[in-house]
Amino acid sequence: MKTYRTILFFLFLLLLVLAGCITPLMMYRYRDLYRGPVEELGEGVDTTGLKGRVIVLDPGHGGPALGAVGPKGLTEKEVNLSVAQHLREMLTSYGAHVVLTREGDTRAVQDPKAGNRADLEARVRISNEVKADLFISLHHNADAIPGSKKNEVETYYAIEGGNASYGLAKCIHRHLVRRLGIKENRIIPGNFAVLRGNEAISVLLEPSYLTHEFVEYRLRSEEARRLEATAIFMGIAEYLSKGLPQLARISPNNETISTAFPQITFEFKDDPLGKGIDPSTIRMELNGKVVRCYFKKKEGVAIFTPRHPLENGPHSINIQAKNYNGNILKPKRAHFIVDLPPKTIGFLPALSQIPPDCLLPIGLEISLRDRYGHLVNDGWEVNIEVDKGVVYPTVDKTKDGRVIAYVRPSEGDHLITVSCGLTKERFVWSSSKTKEKITVLYLKDKVTGSPIEEARLISSEDLYSFNRDGYLLIEDPPPKGTVWAKGYSPYPLDLSSNDEFSELEIFLEPAFNGILFNKVVAIDPDFGGLESGAVTTDGIREADLNLEVAKFLARYLEEAGAQPILTRESDTTLTSFERLLKIERSGADILVIIGHNQSDLTYTQYYPGSKRGRLLATSLHRFIKRGIKDGGVIPIRRYLITHTSMPAVYVHPSGLKDLDPVCLRLEAYSIFSGLLGYYLGGGEDGFFEISGFVKDREGRPMENVIVILNGIFQTQTTRDGGYRLYLPKMDSVTYRLHFARAGFTPKEIDLKELESGKMDIVLE
Asked: According to the model, what pLDDT value does residue 43 have?
């Protein structure tokens, strides 16, 4: 027993010795970390540019939001606030007006029930309300891997406004790298929530990784925090010493004008440190197109007058410029509306002549144009009169420069009088002596009863278009045709037995009750061009698989009434930044990034701070995981997922495989089902699964049989003749499956029960 106790005692002593050796070893290895040069504050930098500037400092996190946590428990929220307080003291001593988004261990938003998004929006609101010149968001990074030695300086600048915030990021970054002694460093375009919609020159700083144990050790001291603040101060002072170009006035802006040739004026304001605006750097855009402007140097004014008349409606103007020291003006987009009165009126009836004995409503399209031939704006009041028959409506307002009216005619010629403002036109609508067979169709949504726009009637002989009221008049109609509209099941139409004059209401069934109507879904096929991604020994590139699945998914979404946006539609090389810009400009509701992997795992990834991103990833994962190795739902900090303003998910539906379109189509349909589940809010429980095998009458499995759901959504059977469909449980929706392959008689099945089950099909 005594020997055992002796061994334990010496082991304990050994541990104490080893524990004592850790700190000296760390001190030597990281001796340069947070040990940069400490000059007198402002030494070597012109600080006169700080005076009078409004600077918002945003200490990240706060209150219940801890941010990163060091190995020994030091929290990011504490360090961020401390650095901000040191920095405020330095800036105010040189005449800057400094505002902190939080003064203590609180959040920026006052409502305790508000979520993280509201807190981030409050920080931006504070910056915009005080009309900040600069916005500095202070953070410290983290690596999810325990014991990680990752450490680098990361400086993000706002992507809004082009590169306007890059100059500030570059100045601060240089001083951080110089003083903190961290070799790895990057300046990165960013789109964090606090940078979006911020009218100031904006950056977000991650000077180091708090999860690095020696960084945490250093940042426990006020000396290290003050060193960080000093580096940031020097960067701000250096940037402002070059002047801060700003816009004093934009005209026209947020107003409606009555000229098609407005004089567009930008008046610049630059302090003496900037030495004025460099005319060679001025770039003006009108409606996204570069135009050549004239610059009056003495007045500091850029002027542009269009050479051709502008169309009625909204217009946007934007300008970019630098001062002579290279600091960039943060562009401000202005908007105005051109609104000219109607000068001419056009008249286009659905029938050029009125047939005898016709009591059907005949549509009239009336267009109104200004003196330059452009359609007028919405909202102009139009009066319509007829000398005989009945017209409705008699008063309407323009939409897309037009009004649509309907006349139930009587016998003989008709005089149509149309007036709008000071303009009046009369049209003689003559009658015909010959009778034609005429059919009027009214197209409506089966669920809402509202008219369906942009629909077509397709026959073997011709194509007909419905108007925006869902109205279509056909002379001598074809005996049969099919009505098609985006997002609806096609409707077979038989007009062979119709009377001479007939009216018919048609109700189209919206795909999945229209749950995806008008949803904008950004799809990013990862890699492409020079970036192949993973490659198999057979030379199959991940980039190609990603693109094919993305195209199939886009087709499913279009057929369901959504608007898909692909970041690439061919094998092109795009940087993450280029993808981000395209996604943000699309106004997408969600982002789906598609990838594949060599491990044959299926998994989804989302940004750890996004609740909606996690819901989206979970919904998609429920449908793509079936029958494949499950890798789970994983939080990750990928660039696109982190910086997009909408919920984003990275989907790996499978490992690398051949370019079999059947398998890729099935992957796309699984992702599509997950998107349906996300928007329905019911997840997997709100769906049922129909699966089975298609065989010939000898019992042999049939590959590549086309399976069509409700005449819209198409998939195929696999090599073993198998198929699988996930369908939402909607009592009001009728599901019909159509099985077809060349050389065999097609088979159509109505699903009467909305329950999961097996259904084998035999084709003859």
From this structure: 76
Pick from 544, 550, 389, 406: nearest CA to 469: 406
User: Rounded distance, CA 342 to CA 77, Å?
Assistant: 61
Q: Cα–Cα distances in Å, from 100 out to 80, 116, 139, 194, 739?
A: 11, 18, 14, 14, 65
Identify the CA nearest to 141 among candidates 58, 60, 228: 60
**Angle in degrees, CA 85, 87, 88, rounded to 5:** 65
- 3-class secondary structure per residue, 351-390: CCCECCCCCCCEEEEEEEECCCCCECCCCCEEEEEECCCE
Chain segment 465-487, per-residue pLDDT in tens: 999 999 999 988 898 999 999 99
> Is-contact 55 12, C-beta < 8 A?
no
Which domains are seen in the chain, by residue range?
48-240 (3.40.630.40), 246-338 (2.60.40.1220), 344-429 (2.60.40.10), 438-509 (2.60.40.1120), 512-681 (3.40.630.40), 686-764 (2.60.40.1120)
User: pLDDT by residue (tens digit) across 288-345?
Assistant: 999 999 999 888 999 999 999 999 999 999 999 999 999 999 878 899 999 999 999 9
Which of 87, 241, 215, 232 lies closest to 174, judged by CA?
232
Low-confidence ranges of the chain (pLDDT < 50): 9-10, 12-22
Distance CA 294, CA 282 (A): 10
pLDDT at 21 (0 to 100): 42
| Number of alpha carbons in the 13 Å side-chain half-sphere of residue 180 | 29
Please, what sign has the CA dihedral across residues 33, 38, 43, 47? Answer: positive
Put simply, whether the predicted model's pTM sits higher than 0.70 gets the answer yes
**Both structure tokens of 399:** 């939409």
Check residue 539 and give its pLDDT: 87
Q: For position 13, what pLDDT does the model report?
A: 41
Compute how many other C-beta atoms are within 10 angstroms of the C-beta atom of residue 744.
16
Q: What would the two tokens of residue 40 be? A: 């007198």
Dihedral sign computed on CA atoms, order 351, 354, 357, 359? positive
CB 602 within 8 A of CB 635: no
In whole angstroms, what is the distance from residue 250 CA to residue 253 CA? 6
